[in-house]
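Our working data are protein records whose layout never changes between entries. Getting from the letters to the tokens is the skill we practise here. To make this concrete, we reproduce a full record directly below:
***
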Amino acid sequence: MQSEILEHGSAFAVQRSPFGGAEWHLGEIASCHATLDEAISVAKELKDTHALALALDWAARQAFNERNPAEVDRLAIDAAGFAPE
């Protein structure tokens, strides 16, 4: 699976984020979290800031929808960590 992910590169990470959002809306909360965590992890591994920004945005939206301000803050800090100064 890992070689398949790296073969498709950033497209994999970018496509996984909205898929995770769809899972959340369908009630698949645990699967949503796993999918978004995977998208964030792949984007970080590939050092793709665009894919990482998208994945963090989707994850933060889901945390907001779940009324989890601590997770929203954590994701915002992660996003700020790679922002240009």
User: Anything to note?
Assistant: The CA atoms of residues 23 and 31 lie 7 Å apart.
